[in-house]
C-alpha cells in the first residue's frame, strides 16, 4: 500500500517509455495525482468496506480478497508480457522457458511472497481495528524497517540526517498511537486499537524484510521484472490460498468464497492488485521528493476524509504527531548532499 502498495512491484526504468521535455511537466503532475489517489483511496476504501455493511449482508472474508488480488496481479503481468512479445507463439515460449521451465527461480520467491501474503492479510486486520488516518500515519513505520533491513541485508549506510529522520518518525508515530489507544472505539463497533497496532507493526517488519530480500535477489539476476513479479505472484497466491483454507475453511463452507462481496469489495481487490503496477509505472516520472510530497498530501487527505465521513476524533496530539511523521518522511527522502573535497595542493620543486 506505499504509497499503499501491499506488495512491491519492481519495474526497470529502461522498460518504460522515456519522458520527453515537451510533456515532462504534465507527466510529473499526473504522477503526483496518481500517487495521491492510490495512497489515499485504497486505505479509505478498505476501511469503509470493513466497517460498513448493508442490512443482512455478511462481512466478506479478507483472505479471499488477498488471494484474488494475487491472481489478478498475475493476469495483469501476463497481459503486459503478451503485449511486449506481440505474438502468441513468442509469449508462450517466454512463459514456458522463464516461468514454467525454471521452478528453482520461482522457489527463490517463497520467502518474500510468504511475507507479502502475511502483510496483505494483516492490513485487513489493522484497518478493521484502526481509523484510516491513524493506520496511514502508523504505516509509515515501514520506512524504519526498510532502512534497518537495507543496512543488514544490502550493506547500505545511512547518514546522520536519515537516522535523525527515523527518530522523528518514531516520535510522531508514538504520539499518534498514544492518541489512538486513549480514544475508545464507537459503541456500535468491535475494535481493538492494540490488535490494530500489532498488525501494523508486524506488517511493516514483514514489508521491510521482504522488500530488501527481493531487491537482493533482483541485483543478482538478469531475469525480467515482469517474470519476477509473476513468480512472486504465483508463490503469493499459493500462500494466500493455504492461509485461506487453513483459517477460514468453516465460513467458506457455510457461505462460499464470494460471500459478502459487493462492488466496493471488487474495487478494493482491483486497487490492491493493479495499484502497485500503476504506481511502479508513474514513479518513472516522479522523483523521491515528489513521492514524499504525495505521501504527505495523502496523509492530510485521509485525515480530512476520516474526520468528515468516519467521525474520526482529530485531536491536537494526532495533528502534531502527523506533522512530525510528514516532516520525517520528507527529510528521509531528501538525497544527502555530496561533500566535495578540495583538490590536494601540490608544491612545485624549486
TrEMBL record:
What is a single cellular component term in the Gene Ontology annotation?
Golgi membrane
| Spans traversing the lipid bilayer | 30-48, 60-82, 163-182, 194-214, 226-247, 263-283, 290-310, 316-334
The domain of life is: Eukaryota
> What compartments host this protein?
Golgi apparatus membrane
Q: How does it sit in the membrane?
A: Multi-pass membrane protein
Keywords, sorted A to Z: Golgi apparatus, Membrane, Sugar transport, Transmembrane, Transmembrane helix, Transport
Q: Does the keyword Transmembrane apply?
A: yes
Q: Which InterPro entries match?
A: EmrE-like (IPR037185), Nuc_sug_transpt (IPR007271)
UniProt-recorded Gene Ontology molecular function terms: pyrimidine nucleotide-sugar transmembrane transporter activity
Q: What is its main location?
A: Golgi
Q: Does Membrane appear among the keywords?
A: yes
Q: Which PANTHER family match?
A: NUCLEOTIDE-SUGAR TRANSMEMBRANE TRANSPORTER (PTHR10231)
Q: Which family does it belong to?
A: Belongs to the nucleotide-sugar transporter family. SLC35A subfamily.
Q: Which NCBIfam families match?
A: nst
- Name by which UniProt lists this protein: UDP-N-acetylglucosamine transporter
Amino acid at each position: 500500500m506505499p504509497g499503499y502498495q501491499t506488495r512491491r512491484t519492481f519495474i526497470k526504468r529502461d522498460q518504460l517509455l522515456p519522458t520527453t521535455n515537451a510533456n515532462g511537466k504534465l507527466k510529473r503532475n499526473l504522477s503526483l495525482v496518481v500517487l495521491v489517489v492510490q495512497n489515499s483511496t485504497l486505505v479509505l476504501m478498505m476501511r469503509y468496506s470493513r466497517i460498513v455493511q448493508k442490512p443482512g449482508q455478511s462481512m466478506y472474508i479478507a483472505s479471499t480478497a488477498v488471494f484474488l488480488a494475487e491472481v489478478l496481479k498475475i493476469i495483469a503481468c501476463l497481459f503486459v508480457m503478451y503485449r511486449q512479445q506481440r505474438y502468441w507463439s513468442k509469449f508462450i515460449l517466454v512463459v514456458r522457458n522463464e516461468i514454467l521451465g525454471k521452478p528453482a527461480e520461482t522457489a527463490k520467491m517463497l520467502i518474500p511472497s510468504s511475507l507479502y501474503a502475511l502483510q496483505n492479510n494483516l492490513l485487513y486486520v489493522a484497518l478493521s481495528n484502526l481509523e484510516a488516518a491513524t493506520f496511514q500515519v502508523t504505516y509509515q513505520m515501514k520506512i524504519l524497517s526498510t532502512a534497518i533491513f537495507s543496512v543488514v541485508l544490502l550493506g547500505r549506510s545511512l547518514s546522520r540526517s536519515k537516522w535523525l529522520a527515523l527518530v522523528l518518525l518514531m516520535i510522531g508515530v508514538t504520539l499518534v498511537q498514544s492518541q489512538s489507544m486513549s480514544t475508545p472505539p464507537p459503541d456500535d463497533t468491535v475494535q481493538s486499537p492494540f490488535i490494530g497496532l500489532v498488525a501494523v507493526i508486524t506488517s511493516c517488519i514483514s514489508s521491510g524484510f521482504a522488500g530488501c530480500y527481493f531487491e537482493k535477489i533482483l541485483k543478482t539476476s538478469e531475469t525480467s521484472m515482469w517474470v519476477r513479479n509473476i513468480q512472486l505472484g504465483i508463490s503469493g497466491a499459493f500462500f494466500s490460498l493455504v492461509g485461506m483454507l487453513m483459517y477460514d475453511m468453516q465460513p467458506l463452507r457455510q457461505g462460499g468464497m464470494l460471500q459478502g462481496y459487493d462492488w466496493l469489495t471488487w474495487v478494493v481487490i482491483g486497487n490492491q492488485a493493479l495499484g502497485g503496477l500503476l504506481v511502479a509505472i508513474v514513479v518513472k516520472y516522479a522523483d523521491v521528493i515528489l513521492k514524499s510530497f504525495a505521501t504527505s498530501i495523502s496523509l492530510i487527505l485521509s485525515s480530512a476524509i476520516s474526520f468528515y465521513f468516519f467521525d474520526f476524533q482529530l485531536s491536537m496530539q494526532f495533528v502534531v504527531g502527523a506533522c512530525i511523521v510528514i516532516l520525517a518522511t520528507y527529510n528521509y527522502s531528501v538525497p544527502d548532499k555530496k561533500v566535495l573535497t578540495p583538490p590536494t595542493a601540490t608544491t612545485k620543486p624549486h
